[in-house]
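Q: My labmate handed me this sequence with no annotations at all. I'd like to see what the chain might look like in three dimensions before we decide whether it's worth expressing. Could you predict it?
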Amino acid sequence: MPSVLGLNFHHDTSAALVVDGRLYAAEEERWSGVKHNHPARKGTLTAPTRALQWCLEAAGLEPQDIDAVWAASMRPNPAAGWWLAEERDELAALLPAPLGEHLRLLSHHTAHVLSGYLLSGHDHAAGLVIDAGGSSLGSDFGPGRERITGYNLRPDDIDRLHQGMPTVVPSPAGPRRVHSSLGHFYRNLARRVIQPGDEPEGSMMALAAYGDPQRYGAQIRELIRLGDDGEVRIDHPWGAADSSTPLLLGSRAWTADNVTEQPEDERADLAAAVQEVFAESVVHISRHLQRLTRASTLVFSGGCALNSHLNGQLAADSGFDTLFVAPAPHDAGTAVGAALYGWHYQLGQGLLPVPTDAAWGPRPGALPPTAVPTGYRALPDLGQTLAPAVAALLAEHHIVGWVQGQLEFGPRALGHRSILAHPGHAATRDRLNAIKKRASYRPFAPAVLAEHATEWFMSAGDPFMNRVARVRRCRADRIAAVTHHDGTARVQSVAPNHQGLHELLEQFHDRTGLPLLLNTSFNRKGTPILRTAEQAVAATADLGLDALAVGDTLLLADHVSDPRATALRTR
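A: Here is what I predict for the chain of 571 residues:
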């Protein structure tokens, strides 16, 4: 029974295990409770201890049973030829001896792109990875790192054919390397637009829908130059990590410290300009890759692939017929790419089936009878009547926690650890933003029956909620809670084999005529998506949800009527 382990030791620490053609994967944050599992001290490496332990236990394996171990490299220094061996030894020391002895490294961006390509089902594809930074590029470029990487991908060929490189410019103090990281560019500007305490990149993408990109567009375009052959050059310091340089727009200085002093309409206008210029830059690179590869499919990964508005534009304007965004394009997904590399290229095993869900993690466990909080009552053992009962609650505009099956891998709740609601009223969106302590301009995503997606949206979205689609104008008023200010929605298409959510959507469709629900992550502000039934109960009480469905048990708030009497009624 062949087995390969993939690991990520940096932020978004994670483990992935492929055994006999089955994928297990989990993120350490779901155990540590620290979002992205950021270390207490920057640069500290940590092993995904509990995620790794779960993967082994779920597969029924011991460390000595593993055939191969792979991890993504991400040490920027030292940048000479011996850096890979040094990092390998450093990471191996964090693992139990049998695993550490097997550990091998591949580049950060290669792990990213393979986390998409080897699950895409496409033989020939162009690959694009864009993030803040990955593996070292070598001594000629000092601390230069992977920032923008393009690939020509075939079953037995990973051809790196485009690489964003730093520019060396003279200065009185000596040569200075100017980095052009689109990931850093977007983050740097987001920190000058979004107030502290909100996630800058995701919040700026949402706020951009309210702004006019023309107001600051010309000035933001001056920071980025698009050249021949997909070249992107970003003025210093905006393409490197920077938290202090003021952004001068007219007579005003924008800094990370004075965000709250800036008028919200101007912050929205700046967000819109940055989003537009950022997307133009990525489209520019993708069209170059299409000319180089002549592929019909683009596989996109890396932190910038979390920008769902960008992905919607790429799907329309990149020059490719098909866009496949990696199921988990953030750094945790490199563990999946590393495991798939070992599985396919080292052990010579066949490709895994194309996934329609990312339920690769642990189950929530049973709900103890003593776990019912004050103000709630339990309806146990509902079995096949659970979905009709929850659909009845949702049809009455109650907000329900939904904890079913294996935990999803990645930053999006995909219907396993979700909060669900009726999509029809904007007031529901406002209530949920208050419950989750999110900015009022943040949208919520719809989960829609895949077979009905194009009836409501101009494109079908994807199973991993990674791209926006335009809402059909004639439908927008009926789904106001999931229609963003710009008429788009980040659509999750739910396939018939989804564990639990497809049946619930069918029940809700039968009752309301709506084949979709509002779906947001089940977590408190600033914390990861929860993992266990016990955590779900505590969060339900803390957030004040109307109900919680865990396994075949339904918790109801005391003010909510028992839905079983009306569960069998349909429209």
